[in-house]
Amino acid sequence: MIIKKILFIVFFILISAAHSVENKILIKIDNDIITSIDILNEVNYLIAINKDIKKLEKNRIYEIAKNTVIRDKIKKNQILKVIKKIDLDKKYIAKIIESTALKLGHETKKDFENYMLSSGIKIDLIEKKISLEILWNELIFQKFSNQLAINEEKILQEIKSNNKKVKSFLLSEIVINLSIGETINQKFEEIKKNIIDNGFENAALIHSASNTSSAGGKLGWISENAMNKKIKKEILRLKPGEYTEPMVIPGGFLILKLENLREDKMEIDVKKELKKLVALKKQQQLNQFSNIYYNKIKKDIIINEL
Q1: Which helix (H) or strand (E) holds 169?
Q2: What averages of pLDDT result for each successive group of 10 residues across the chain (306 residues)?
Q3: Could you tell me the CATH superfamily of domain 2-145?
């Protein structure tokens, strides 16, 4: 334990002088490796997109970055069993970077890129991360699209019943995959303590298995029509700033925080709304399949920390 703490301290001293970091192999994943530079880049990336992470202890930030790099490496290796190269059209990636820039509060893609460069993040790293996530999502869709269960008629009726008044909720999430021997109550108590000490956003960074974890669990605005009855019922009990009790999902549980809410009075384009909500529900189900599949393949992978 003392040796680990010393390694954490040395690692973060070197962050302030990145050019002097010796690129050492820290982790082996089957026949692949993760180096000190890989984790340093991830630390810089996480800090750049989520400044609140600095509130965490340095060893906690290191663990988050390390686990994220491990997860990305496992996903990459699984994708490369299907395709030869992680590569997507540059123009397509540029559009996604532009959208990401706006979500993070930057006026232009160029402003975002300059900000990331000043934080020690090269643009090709961002492009690789985006490409990886897109190809992973495509892999999940190919494997599980035939298992999606969407009741369009039910969604249509809900849209029509709310045609003049629709609630939307600004939500954040923590998705937990329980380890063998862990109970929901034990894990929830640990997460609640982290929320009290560091805030919901950092608790998501520490614990969440969702792709939203690096953004502090932020889901954005979700229409009530896109929620199942159980989740909607739990959200309606909350005031802004509060979060739900654990809600059981395949492989673990989900916690949702209500950041804000609004009520829109408007006539809805039913066809357009139906198309949007069907796509959203499909994505929600695919996210669950993604977590289940990732946990399945991870069990068969040997991870050695050197």
Answers
A1: strand 166-177
A2: 48 48 84 91 90 85 92 93 86 89 86 90 90 93 93 86 79 89 89 92 91 88 86 93 92 92 77 89 91 90 87
A3: Porin chaperone SurA, peptide-binding domain (1.10.4030.10)
